[in-house]
What we know:
DNA-binding; globular; disordered N terminus; nucleus (chains A, B)
Amino acid sequence: MCDNENFARKLRQILTLSIGNVVKPLQDNLEDIMTIRNLKLCPVRPDKSNRALRIEEINNGFKESGSEEENSGEQPRASVEAGPSQIRETPAQSTDNDDMIPIGKGHAKVLSKVLTSIKWMSYTKATRTLLEAIFPRRVLATHSLSGKQSPAFMDRPAKKILNPKLVDDIVNTVSTKCVVSKNLVRKCITVKCADEAKTCRQQKRALNDKIPL
Amino acid sequence: MCDNENFARKLRQILTLSIGNVVKPLQDNLEDIMTIRNLKLCPVRPDKSNRALRIEEINNGFKESGSEEENSGEQPRASVEAGPSQIRETPAQSTDNDDMIPIGKGHAKVLSKVLTSIKWMSYTKATRTLLEAIFPRRVLATHSLSGKQSPAFMDRPAKKILNPKLVDDIVNTVSTKCVVSKNLVRKCITVKCADEAKTCRQQKRALNDKIPL
DNA sequence: GTTCCAATTGGAA
DNA sequence: GTTCCAATTGGAA
Lengths: 213, 213
């Protein structure tokens, strides 16, 4: 993971220092490579026999779900809302429950058609799409990344913390797929929660304006 | 500029999708390439005859200073503290005034030894170093990127705006050299100003504790 | 309707 | 002593 980041960082520097000569030849092949890779990632049919392979490819070297760290004793500092209450229920129209693909360590599962629709060019879009796929809007609006108070608003109550295992699955996936630092992905999550909270607030306000108490 | 960003973004995706096979061979040559490039960037002596070449290389294709856009009519929305008052004075111990190297469009100038000391691996460090090299601490503490009020603290007065031309020179330089989006660089500037303001505040507080009025 | 911008904060790293 | 973390906000894009 860390090696990936260092490698990407070095490559970025090389790119800048040697635009036009060293890496130019690679550019010509980019489109072909991407096309091929995308084809491989395209879902075919919900066929269990090659499901494992597809997951392997999508998660790109992640451990499979149910690893020994499932029950590791690590406790998050803030109180965690345990259990599945934070997890988005499978949509009613989906009859095939197996169509959920685990990401990261496998705590989080995402509908395969959502996962394959994600364009990994934008780590912000990818993060927000995964968040919406994994958490109900209500949870996003009422929880935050750390579960801590805003240092700038010490009088306000803190929101609850987003399930850290699910968050980690998202962070690791986006960070790896988009080769950006985990911090940037975490910032996206903070912003997304703030945006959902604002939307929620605005809807309540609009409702109050319509039907004033 | 935009092409660079798109290219880097594509490369990042390729990296993720094809770790270990497509780009692996390139990795072996990274160290050599970087060494060679670093050697080229190393300052030799303040010798005017090859100064231009070094600047050309460092700025990587930027226009030279004194371009026709020097007097373009673009006016920033917030009030700008015009003139050199925002610009860091050349340190007293420097006898060679020519040792200032322009970056970006050339509004901002940086001591050559500072410029060559910057490690472009970290865009945050690079941005902060350039800020300290170009603006006095006092300006960083009392100005902000936009010159606008905080939306979260509408009662507080807005700080003044950092000279946008100097900011642009920094943003363009770091964005290009580190192949990160301009927005990320701008975020760094916001944070740096906030940090300087905090330091300033703390120093005043410490002084008041010592010599209470 | 969503996403991004950027100013502010106290404490942690 | 400096840099980073992340929560909050209203408006702009």
